[in-house]
Task: inverse folding
């Protein structure tokens, strides 16, 4: 019984870690895309002001 509980706890911990890492990757991607968007907007504004 203890082995099953241990295996279940390990599986649950692995899933939680995977989920946390997945959320972190999505946040990094979103941040990078937003930064690229802001740079493009700034370049567009700079080119139209000239």
Result:
């Amino acid at each position: 019984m203890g082995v099953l509980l241990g295996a279940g706890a390990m599986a649950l911990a692995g899933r939680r870690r995977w989920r946390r890492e997945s959320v972190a990757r999505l946040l990094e991607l979103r941040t990078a895309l937003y930064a690229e968007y802001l740079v493009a907007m700034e370049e567009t504004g700079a080119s139209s002001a000239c």
